[in-house]
Amino acid sequence: MNTASNLLTRVAGGAAWITLNRPEQRNALDIPTIKALHALLDELSADPAVRVLVLTGSGKSFCAGADLAEWAAAEARGALESYGWTEAAHALMTRLHGFAKPTIAAINGTAVGAGMDLTLCCDFRLAAQSARFKAGYTSMAYSPDAGASWHLPRLIGSEQAKRLLFLDELWGAERALTTGLVGEICADEQLLAVAGELATRLASGPTFAFAQTKTLIEDGAQRSLAEQLEAERRAGLLCGRSEDGGEALRAAMEKRAPLFIGR
């Protein structure tokens, strides 16, 4: 386990585990933490030993969103519009959303504001039974940032997104599952084990093909069907020429399980 700033990270079995580690601040995102997480994502993206990413929090909260103490200090010195939190957070969300390898949010407690937005940037969201979700913006007389207004309508539909954002309701794990905000819930004590099982399945899979699929899904919303079919053809050629593609064909012919390497 390596410790960097307010983050804990370890790599095991092809999975990189990142734990937000500011439990006394409910893992709130101050600028140093945001920048450290961004740099860590760059490092893990380039590491061939990493085939899947799991993001979770220490203590009783996943992430409380923006660090209000840092926010208040910036306002007190007249630097609220220039101290750089929004720019740093937006760069982080863009980096996490565009991470080429599969990403899992293991949501161990309350996810508020930008903390909820971190989970929305991940491919899979697993919630502990005690997890809670709150947008947190309009209660502060503020509009959404860090991607909530983009992700939520796509995940849960426009009306449910407006309920969560306008009314600033606190949603439990069951409500989050029903609306599609998360894909699975489990007992608190089972969260890391369940996340680990999913991470193992993904890490042993054809991660090159996963990356192509992820790009197709994200870019497909901006294309016509004809354009998407052409993009699928190009991606399919890349997958077919990959080492994993050759291994999949050999394994099928030899009637055995394939051994993928992510290339």
Write structural notes for this entry:
- The protein is α/β, with parallel strands linked by helices.
- The protein folds into two domains: 202 residues, 2-enoyl-CoA Hydratase, Chain A, domain 1 (Alpha-Beta Complex), CATH 3.90.226.10; 48 residues.
- Helices cover 48% and strands 17% of the residues.
- It contains eleven helices and eleven strands.
- The strands form two sheets. Strands 1-2-3-4-6-8-11 form a seven-stranded mixed β-sheet, with helices on both faces.
- Helix 5 crosses helix 6 and helix 9 runs antiparallel to helix 10.
- The longest helix is centred in the last third of the chain and has 17 residues.
- The radius of gyration is 19 Å and the shape is globular.
- The mean pLDDT is 90.
